[in-house]
Amino acid sequence: MKIRKTTDMLLCRIDDREFFETWKRAGRRAGAAALDLLLPRRCAICGTLSAGICGECRKKLPYIRGDVCFCCGRPLADPDAEYCPACRVKKHAYTQGRALYLYTDAVRESLHAVKYHNKREYLEYYAREMAEHLAEAWKTWQPQVMIPIPMHPSACRKRGYNQAEILAKELGRILGIPVRCDVLKKVRKTASQKELDYRARQSNLKGAFAVAEKYMHSSRREGGLQEIPRGSERCLPWERVLLVDDIYTTGSTVHEAAVVLKNAGIKCVYFVTICAVPENS
């Protein structure tokens, strides 16, 4: 009798938990629907009322298709080439990467709105586009985890959010890939990269990223990493990691992040971005 009573209580708790989780999800959906009524969603490019990127803008957007660089994923002018001119002369720590669009004025203005005018919902649209149009990359790479490129804590506090983190979480939700935002840290403030060339960007980012100290090699148990004492050899428990960022310019940021991750035991570091700046622009 006692065993049956205990079993009934456990089942009741499970049912209660499932009941509340169901209502919680329903509440979130209802809240999102109410917000959409009050503040209708708009196209991330032209601003017209749309539940995503509108059909007209989709036709005009510079999707990166066809022959691309085997390393950085930018379009190739020479269809017989395997690498773009930059990747032929630069050695990157990352394995391979892809971007959804070329960096044009329309895309630049949209991402500026994301960063400086709180248009975070645009990142949901871009995540859906990336999930659909970069399907071949997901199939080939099979990443075990996504890691967003981090911001320095002071910069993140000032903006209020990290756009790469929001993008990674939405993309991870769609693709069913875990997202870890606590592994890679930006530990040093850096100057703005906008006006810097490749060498200056590399120098600017040197030592800017680090793996969080608590993540060390101790066990490859299912479910994550185990904290062990400072000074032990670091080794993250994945072989294939996907970095997520908004813009690929010269590759300095993903290169430096990949250096840190590879030093922590990662074999293959891939990256995806919303857009890539065309070479020589």
> What's the tally of helices?
10
Instruction: Give the overall form.
Output: globular
The radius of gyration computed from the alpha-carbon positions, rounded to a whole number of angstroms, is 21 Å
- Helicity level, as a percent range? 40-55%
Quaternary state, please? single chain
Distance from N terminus to C terminus (CA atoms, Å) equals: 77 Å
Task: Give a count of the beta strands, DSSP E runs of length 2 or more.
Answer: 6
Poorly predicted sequence stretches spanning 5 or more consecutive residues: 217-232
Q: Give the neighbour order of strands across the main sheet.
A: 1-6-5-2
The biggest sheet amounts to: 4 strands, parallel
- Strand % is 5-15%
Order of helices and strands: HHHEHHHEHHEHEEHE
Look at the structure and give the mean pLDDT.
Answer: 83
By secondary-structure content and strand pairing, the structural class works out as: alpha/beta
Write up what this structure looks like.
- With 281 residues, the chain is α/β, with parallel strands linked by helices.
- The protein is built from 10 helices and 6 strands.
- It has helices at residues 2-38, 55-60, 85-89, 105-116, 121-133, 135-141, 153-159, 163-175, 198-205, 252-263; strands at 96-102, 145-148, 184-186, 209-211, 240-248, 268-276.
- The strands form 2 sheets. The protein has a 4-stranded parallel sheet with strand order 1-6-5-2. Strands 3-4 form a two-stranded antiparallel sheet.
- β5, α10 and β6 (268-276) form a beta-alpha-beta unit.
- α5 packs across α8 (163-175).
- The longest helix has 37 residues, at 2-38.
- The radius of gyration is 21 Å and the shape is globular.
- 30% of the residues are buried.
- Mean pLDDT is 83; it is low at 217-232.
